Amino acid sequence: MPRRLLQFQTGYCYHVYNRGNNRQRIFFERENYIYFLKLLRYKLLTSDIDLLAYCLMPNHYHLLVQCQGGDLSKGMQSVTLAYAKAINERYDRTGSLFEGAFKAIEVYTSEYLYQLVRYIHLNPVKADLVDRPEEWEFSSYSEYADLRTGKLPKMELVRSSFNSATTR
Fold it and tell me: What is the pTM of this model?
């Protein structure tokens, strides 16, 4: 397997995403989304990775993470392998669930962070799954909008970046 060109560094933020093999669904029912979120909470937390924002779509996901000293590649591999194994078993399927290894882009400015969080949270609206982002249950938008209390996203860094981006 080729090595990833991007080297993940402590304190840096990354946009992590992937989609289903052949653009097929990776979430088939509500319980699948919830299970993936539970895996993220447990596997990333134990890998010393903070989840700052997320959106799970029927055939792909977007995550905004910050490395706190852990190995992002191993953490994400642990999440996706456990999830794919459970889905394959539950739906009596075989083969790859995801389209290869996850992709990641370094978030290098506060402005990019601001735009990325907006992009992540507006994904279900742009896909015509809902009319407003707060209607999509499987994103961190409702936590950011104070419509739901949750423990998954760590919002402090993003909220402070929003304040600096909107006061310019």
Answer: 0.88
